[in-house]
Amino acid sequence: MKAKTTHILFDCDNTLVLSESLAFEACAQLSNEILASQNIADRYTGEQLLVDFVGKNFRGMLVDLQAKYQFTIPPEELDKYVSMEEDKVIEKLVADLVPCPGANQVLSKLVASNKYTLAVVSSSAYRRVFASLQKASQLPFFLPTPSITPESRIFSAATSLPVPTSKPDPAIYLFACEQLGAPPIACVAVEDSKSGATAAVRAGIPVIGYVGSYEGEEKKREMRKMLEEVGCVSVMEHWDEFEEALERAGCN
């Protein structure tokens, strides 16, 4: 029998906020500039990047691009590109981002219940996550008292860890559990991507999948199947299914 759930750990991008298409649109230009600088002819649209790299941060994306096209970016230059991409994406998110439908209502209800500690565990850089939550009016849900600092409830694989990484590496989930003082089995994660769900599963955390941010019924079915295969104990299509999803997962 599962231990009592005390903490709920939310992915941010396309789980709490509709950000991925905006972010990949913003970083496609920079990705293409990097490929051009390496004399590589291929170019990406934001949509193509989203399909190939959903759930990964820009650092993880560049690692994969280097492996795919067999080139190397020196560490200091990689850091520069990551910073450039972060600025471009935040500008786009602050202008156009909206929350996932129903997410704010669920977060409000969870805070009011006083049953769980809520935290965000993301691959994205802390500045981007903070800006997204602020734009979507979600930041107060993770800062319930003035004594709580944002860093204590928002964890970024890109900036919180001693060595930056990206999901599906479980490091950021293990770090979040350690910082929160919560064993993985007492947590439940909410994830929309294969890489994110894999990270949580590898950390020993039960996972609820979310497919509501994907367009089209065929894509939703495809992602539901993938998330179930990765190990999600429950999958929901809309945030109004969250309480039922918790019950199905034995996490309520």
UniProtKB/TrEMBL annotation:
InterPro entries: CbbY-like (IPR044999), HAD-like_sf (IPR036412), HAD-SF_hydro_IA (IPR006439), HAD_sf (IPR023214), PGP-like_dom2 (IPR023198). CDD domains: HAD_BPGM-like. One of its GO terms (molecular function) is phosphatase activity. Pfam families: Hydrolase. The keyword Lipid metabolism does not apply. The keyword Cytoplasm does not apply. Signal peptide: none annotated. Keywords: Hydrolase. This is Haloacid dehalogenase-like hydrolase family protein. It comes from Rhodocollybia butyracea.
